[in-house]
Amino acid sequence: MNISNTELDIDFVRSQFPAFSDPICKEWSFFENAGGSYVPKQVIDKLNEFMTSTKVQPYAEYPMAKKAGENMDLATKLFAKMINADTKEIIIGGSTSINLYVLSNALKYSIKPGDEIIVTNQDHEANISPWRRLSENGAVIKEWKINPDTAELEIEKFEELLNNKTKIVAVTHCSNIVGSVNDLKKISNLAHKYNAIVIGDGVSYAPHGFPDVKDLEVDFYTFSLYKTYGPHLALLYGKKDILKNLPNQNHQFLDGDYPYTINPGGPNHEELVSLIGINEYIEKLYNHHFENDKITLRNKVEKVNDLISKHEEIIANPILEYINNNKKLKLIGKNIITNKNRAPTVSFTARDKSSKELSKILVANKIATRNDNFYAWRCLDALKIDTNDGVVRVSMTHYNSIKDTNKLIEVLENI
Ligand SMILES: Cc1ncc(COP(=O)(O)O)c(C=O)c1O
Question: I need a labelling partner for 31 at 20 to 30 A (CA). Which of 83, 109, 161, 374 fits?
Answer without folding.
Answer: 83
